[in-house]
Amino acid sequence: MTALGMLAGLAAASIWGGMYVVSKVVLDIIPPFALLSSRLILGVLCLGAIVLLTGGLRGTRRQLCEVFLIGVVGYGVSLGFQFVGTKLSTAANAALVTSASPAFIMLFGVWLLKERVTLLQVFALIMATAGVVAIVNPSKAAEAGQVFWGNMALIGASLTWGLYSVLVRRASGALSTLEISTVAFLGGLPISLPISAWESATVGFGEITFPVILGVLYLGIISTAFAMYLWNKSLALLNASIVSLLFFAQPVVGAGLGAWLLGEELNLGFWTGATLIAAGLLTSARAQSARLTRAEKA
Asked: Is residue 193 classed exposed, middle or buried when 0-12, 13-18 and 19+ CB atoms within 10 A define those classes?
């Protein structure tokens, strides 16, 4: 089950790495919250059909309401920040800045799940945070323009995704992964639908071509329904601190595809930030491994 949980989390993070490149292209045609709404609706339709075929929702009203509110945080607020940030910044920055989510997962894990944290993990958190600052570079906010504000939105996405991941971890003891994923998708719609209606009236859409439709389907079915299910399954099987380390596959895939397919420039700030974030995640992995070893010996 541990191997299954790690494979599920790694696959989800890799899919999300490719998602940023697809999102960057599609967001030139479809506004952020309109794209988010279509993504969530497709996810609900895919997983909702499976739920109906397997006997429907089994959770209590209170449990389902709790997951719905968790979905507001994860799919309404966090993914909203993510799409806005990706549109204003770059796909490579989006993949890397949001990879700081493990730091917030660790913090919220300590606060809400009472998970223990070591000094080595705190040091890892500091390095990852320094990496994000190196990428965002507040001293050049005026020069960066919309890219800076895009990066700030991505930090908001990273923070709220950390909170969402820990809340899902807590809820997974009472409900199945399929129930959590489906109901949480619904939780994002009360935020995304009204804003997408406003976008449609004020911003409008570009030309909807067949590649754009394929991009929307990829975002809705593969990176939402399938990848979110895998991520929630990983959180249900593993400690939140372990799952957080699997997130590192996202920036590797996202930055590589952004540079290759979109021709995005990876500057010194990006590589400095990438090095610090990688060092932070690897240090956290080492700390987690040492803690598990001590627990087994005890």
From this structure: middle
Segments making up each domain of the chain, as ranges:
2-297
Cα angle vertex 109, ends 104, 114, to 5°? 150
From first to last of its 298 residues, the chain has per-residue pLDDT tens of: 677 888 888 889 889 888 888 999 999 999 999 999 998 999 899 889 988 988 888 888 999 999 999 999 999 999 999 999 999 988 888 888 887 777 778 788 888 877 777 788 788 778 877 887 787 676 665 556 788 889 899 999 989 988 998 898 888 777 888 888 899 999 999 999 999 999 999 988 999 999 999 999 999 889 888 888 888 888 788 776 677 667 777 777 888 888 888 888 778 888 888 888 778 777 776 776 666 666 666 6
- Whole-structure pTM value: 0.79
Rg of the chain over all Cα atoms, to the nearest angstrom = 19
Contact present, 143 and 19 (Cβ < 8 Å): no
